[in-house]
Write a structure and sequence with these properties.
The protein has four helices and six strands. The chain is globular. The longest helix is centred in the middle third of the chain and has 16 residues, at about 45-60. α3 (about 75-80) links the parallel β5 and β6. By secondary structure, the chain is of the alpha/beta class.
Length: about 100
């Protein structure tokens, strides 16, 4: 697996968000200018999971980098859309991992 890819699974909520944040922080340490989070195996996201995405977006922006999200299921996509995360300048959302990789290239 690529060092700049995080692929969480299951629910991203207050119970699992700390481990998700650890994985994202580790990937950000390894990533130069781009981080990809693949949501293909995520079934639910709460505000705790959204907080991790926001931290990642802000951290990557501070270093001039980008954050790409991909493979969002219906529920996750709806929550991200309602949260207006698509308006963050350095964050992009893609239907699949290959498109997200291209956006970070």
């Amino acid at each position: 697996m690529d060092e700049n890819v995080v692929a969480p699974a299951g629910r991203l909520d207050s119970v699992t968000a700390p481990a998700f944040l650890q994985a994202v922080n580790a990937a950000m340490r390894a990533a130069d200018t781009g981080l990809l989070i693949d949501f293909s195996a995520v079934t639910y996201i709460s505000s705790a999971g959204l907080r991790v995405i926001l931290i990642a977006a802000k951290t990557m922006a501070a270093r001039g980098g980008r954050l790409a999200l991909c493979s969002l299921g219906r529920q996750v996509a709806e929550v991200i859309e309602l949260s207006d995360f698509g308006t963050l300048a350095n964050l992009s959302i893609h239907p699949e991992r290959d498109a997200a990789r291209l956006a970070l290239a």
